[in-house]
Model the fold of this input.
Amino acid sequence: MTSTDSKTVSRRRFLKGTAVIGGAAAGSTLAAPAVLAQAPLVVRMQSSWPASDVWQEMAQHYCDRVEAMSGGRISMELLPAGSVVGAFQVMDGVSDGVIDVAHSVSAYWYGKHKGASMFGTGPVFGGNPHTMLAWFNAGGGKELYRELTQDVLGLDVVGFMGMPMPAQPFGWFKGEVNTVDDIQGFKYRTVGLAADLLQSMGMSVSQLPGGEIVPAMERGVIDAFEFNNPTSDRRFGAQDVAQNYYLGSYHQASECFEFIFNRPFYEDLDEDLRAILEYAVEASATANFATALDNYSRDLQELAAGGVNVRRTSPEILEAQIGAWDTIIADLEGDEFISKVIASQREWVDRVTYYELMNAPSYEAAYEHYFPGKLAL
Done:
């Protein structure tokens, strides 16, 4: 029997044993101490984030909800990146049964198949992050994710998508960048298909975990970068190595957190515990998003107050990004699986975003009315 088999049997015995002991307790007071002494199922969950990052706090939101909803039957052991496997290796760690669950993003296993990035850092097609999370849950994305992970790649995992992230900033630069010519030759950090996108626009791209970004900037390995948000960037010390921060970009405009479960472990759980693990993803997304808006906005103000030049990415660069996506999409459609994902996303965005845009008033106009001049960066 392999170690993974042993773990599965042991978990089965725990869960089934709970039911047996519970039944015995109903017929005999002698069994009560055994019921009270039953230890919780310990679930080992590793993230792709440093212990100090706000995303590790968001992963903890999930753990807290699982423990509360399970009534103590599950105890979550949350570990930061590198505790068991590297930040980019969590997919393999979960599939191999080395960890039970991972909190990550799909772009981090993009090296296995470029289709991974279609679930996080793919072309936006005009859909916002909430639209794309809805596509995953209601538009066929979940089934396509299962097909890629289990059928195409043979990974022993089950996955769900969590918090829809605000669009990611273009990032940190030492000087101003207003034109496509201005970014030529930059050694830049990003991940997933965004690396293909910006490389096609003239950058030299490195894919690095979050904790390695600022040290790489200090050593000159990179000279510009993005990670994800003002809070993480500020905690990393981005403001110590660059002073120009560009918000709003199409390179990663619709990403979500990814929760990856070892399939034998997940499927061996009682049905109610499986439901708790799945629906706690949805519950944590609400808590995560509130935390994101609160922290990201406050830290952006702190960065600006500390001397960082907060700017909007220029229309010229944004237009060039969309044009570069067109070329990348044409190349990607040569892959049968990715072509299916693109067709599914296009159909969803065509229908759903039409409704969203037709129905939405101009929030920017209302903001300008009440807070005039603030958006003129």
